[in-house]
């Protein structure tokens, strides 16, 4: 498909720079078949049915942004995928000043050797020493705010909490599964009282999620791989819910993509552990999910393509026009939508 079909104009003042307070007070646009409703996230229990199951991503964001030097040159690195115990693949700022074999000093006693430059300009970084890389990042790294927020304001202490979900447990993501940022213990209690259960899986979100689609046609776009895991017990729960007439509602496109990666043509979810680079565009037949809670996404992004595959491109174009006209807040810290095809 022509990527231009997924473009739209978004006023810059619609980009949220802080999450709603409290988190579940964020607005929520409900697309339920042909119906459209303006709600808030706190209304979610009334928009779902007893027997439904919400699936959350329990990945935890690490301080994946590093600032360093190679000689006199300043080098910025955003880690996006672990490749070994001490090796991470990283997008590099000022990459023209970096060559294979160059050491980078990130300060605080943290150094890494750059190697294996890829076609996308990324490098592998091998961290020196014996300390766990997680400790090195805690010392020298910063939270990786999305570029559309970082360009408008500086990172501050609030972001360390604001950019983690209440489910964050498995360290390894360099971007938050932001749909789950809206959930609070109080909302989870209300959902449980309404007979709506939940499960978790793990997908370590990579920085590739923010990369623009540069190809003119979706067929020519190469997705970055991300590591995920669904265990046997979780797969069994998802299958049991659907077998009993309930719906599996993914919270976030990360949860959705991993479920779809683990689901066979027969509609059964199976245990999964490994990389996925699934790319969902209109024409895709969904096998493992029945709905999605998600934020509002960038123009021409793979995520807007995904929601268009779920609900139809014209439906999503109209929904985004509605959201813009009614002052919904967009992107990672923005408002939510509930998509029920």
Q: How would you sum up the major sheet?
A: 9 strands, mixed
Strand and helix order: EEHEEEEEEEEHHHEHEEHEHEEHHE
Low-confidence stretches: none
Give the helix proportion (percent range): 10-25%
Mean pLDDT: 96
Number of helices: 9
Q: For the largest beta sheet, what order do the strands appear in spatially? A: 2-1-17-16-14-3-12-13-15
Q: Can you tell me the overall shape?
A: globular
Strand content: 25-35%
Q: Gap between N and C termini, in Å?
A: 21 Å
The counted number of beta strands is: 17
Briefly note the structural class of the backbone: alpha/beta
Radius of gyration over alpha carbons? 20 Å
What does this molecule look like?
This protein has 341 residues and is of the alpha/beta class. The chain has helices at 44-47, 133-140, 147-150, 159-162, 185-193, 232-243, 253-262, 302-311, 313-325; strands at 27-32, 35-40, 53-57, 59-61, 65-70, 73-82, 87-93, 103-105, 111-115, 123-127, 170-173, 197-203, 226-230, 248-251, 272-276, 291-295, 336-340. The strands form 3 sheets. Strands 2-1-17-16-14-3-12-13-15 form a 9-stranded mixed β-sheet, covered by helices on one side. α8 crosses α9 (313-325). The radius of gyration is 20 Å and the shape is globular.
């Amino acid at each position: 498909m022509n990527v231009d079909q997924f473009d739209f104009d978004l006023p810059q003042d619609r980009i949220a720079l802080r999450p709603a307070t409290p988190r579940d007070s964020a607005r929520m646009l409900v697309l339920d078949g042909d119906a459209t409703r303006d709600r808030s996230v706190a209304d979610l229990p009334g928009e779902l049915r007893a027997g439904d199951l919400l699936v959350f991503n329990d990945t935890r964001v690490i301080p994946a942004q590093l600032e360093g030097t190679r000689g006199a040159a300043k080098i910025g690195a955003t880690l996006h995928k672990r490749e070994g115990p001490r090796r991470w693949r990283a997008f590099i700022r000022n990459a023209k000043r970096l060559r294979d074999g160059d050491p980078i000093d990130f300060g605080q006693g943290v150094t890494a050797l750059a190697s294996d430059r890829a076609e996308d300009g990324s490098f592998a970084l091998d961290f020196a020493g014996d300390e766990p890389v997680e400790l090195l990042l805690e010392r020298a790294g910063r939270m990786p705010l999305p570029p559309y927020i970082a360009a408008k304001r500086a990172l501050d202490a609030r972001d360390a909490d604001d950019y983690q979900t209440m489910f964050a447990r498995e360290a390894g993501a360099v971007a938050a599964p932001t749909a789950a940022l809206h959930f609070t213990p109080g909302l989870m209690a209300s959902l449980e009282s309404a007979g709506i259960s939940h499960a978790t899986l793990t997908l370590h979100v990579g920085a590739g999620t923010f990369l623009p689609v540069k190809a003119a046609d979706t067929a020519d776009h190469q997705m970055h791989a991300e590591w995920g895991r669904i265990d046997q017990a979780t797969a069994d729960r998802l299958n049991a819910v659907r077998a009993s007439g309930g719906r599996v509602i993914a919270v976030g496109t990360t949860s959705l993509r991993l479920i779809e990666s683990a689901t066979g043509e027969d509609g059964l979810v199976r245990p999964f552990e490994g990389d996925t680079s699934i790319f969902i565009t209109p024409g895709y037949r969904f096998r493992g999910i029945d709905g999605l809670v998600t934020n509002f996404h960038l123009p021409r992004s793979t995520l807007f393509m995904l929601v268009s595959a779920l609900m139809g491109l014209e439906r999503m174009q109209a929904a985004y026009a509605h959201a813009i006209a009614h002052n919904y807040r967009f992107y990672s810290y923005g408002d939510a939508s509930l998509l029920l095809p």
